[in-house]
Structure formats: structure tokens, C-alpha cells
């Protein structure tokens, strides 16, 4: 193993932080933020217009020149937990002020910081792939309860590189990392994402964390409850398992 590619929600960070802190923060302030920044969000609004045109479930009207109309659609996307690229970009912008002021501090599981150090010291590249924007990812890892963890992370990827449930996205990431897919382990709490990564030639591990949804039996992914279970000694093409306790 030469690289670890990590999901965030339910993998490095509790799901509750995203759904109980970040999403409500953005939703409550969306109207004012769009009103203040409507002219600076032309690209993101163009993306939203295209998305809404293919969203028959939305019964409202999206008018690019109306802050209320734009914010209403963004709130709808938040409520639907939609993995919308323009939504994630705008949310990242909104969270930046809160992180930098100390209003928001992100939790990570206690095993994450020492694992990051262990992996980096062993020469393993650490990358993040999340539906949250690259900006949001960097803010989350820069402002954690354990301090700034961005010093350990070499690369960040969001949905601009592709859908997390498509194998092609993982091929694109491997190309960007300049590492063979077989030498990358992807850790996530999502079976659909792990299936896509496995199809893309990656090693995979299912993250089983407190608060994560239960998953059906019969999948082919080893399960880990802590990053301590990733076996560094088996990463130098020794043929051993990269998990210390594979299922």
C-alpha cells in the first residue's frame, strides 16, 4: 500500500457533526449569504440552474436573479442531503468564517491523528475524497479538536473529479496521485462507494464507527473500527494483509 484515500463523514469524523452542526449552520444563514453574495456566485448559480432543470421533484421556481429563489433551492438540496457540487461549494464558503473565528471546531475520532502521523512517517500518502468541497475539507482538517491535521494530507478530491459511486472517479484519482490503483486503500462507510473503488482496482475497508448506519451482510469489504487496524508492516508489497484483523 502506497496511499490511503479517506472518506470523511463516518470515517474520520462523526456523522453527527455534519448533520447536526455543519448542515444546520449553513441552512440557517443561507438566505443572508446568498443575498450578500449573489453577484459573486454566477458560476455556482449556473450549475444550480442546470441541476434544477433535471430535478422534477422540486416544485419551486429557481430564478438566477432572485436571492430568495436561489437560497430556497439550496435549502431544499440540504434537506435532501443532495451531493450537489454547487451546494457543497457554497457551504464551504459559509463555513470558512465560522471555522476561522473559532465558532466551529471539527471533531475527529481519537485514532485519526496518530494514524495520520504513523502513515506519513511510513511514507504512505494520505488523500481525502469527499462530496464536500475541497475548501470545506481543508477547513475541517485545519480546525480540529486535535489541531491542524492538514500537514499530513497531500491531496484533496471532491465531486469535481467524479461521482463517488463511479469506478471512473477512482481511476481519475489514481492517475492524479500517480499511484497504481492496486496500491491505494480506500476507507469509507458507504458500500456503494467501496464497491466503485473495488471495481476501480483499489483495496478497500468499510469504516464501522459509532453513529454509522448498519450495513447489510454479504459485502466483500473488510471492516475496521479504528485506523489502528490498518497494518503498516504489510504495506511494502510483502503479500500480507494490509489490515491487522481482516474479516
In angstroms, what is the radius of gyration? 19 Å
Biggest sheet layout: 6 strands, parallel
Distance between the termini: 18 Å
Average pLDDT score: 93
- Fraction in helix: 40-55%
- Distinct helical segment count: 8
| Widest sheet: strand ordering | 3-2-1-4-5-6
Strand content: 5-15%
Shape: globular
Helix and strand content put the structural class at alpha/beta
Q: How many beta-strand segments?
A: 6
- Contiguous low-pLDDT stretches (5 residues minimum) are 236-240
Order of helices and strands: EHHHHHEHEHEHEE
Describe what this molecule looks like in 3D.
- About 40% of the residues lie in helices and about 10% in strands.
- With about 250 residues, the chain is an alpha/beta fold.
- Helix 7 packs across helix 8.
- It is globular, with a radius of gyration of 19 Å.
- About 0% of the residues have low confidence.
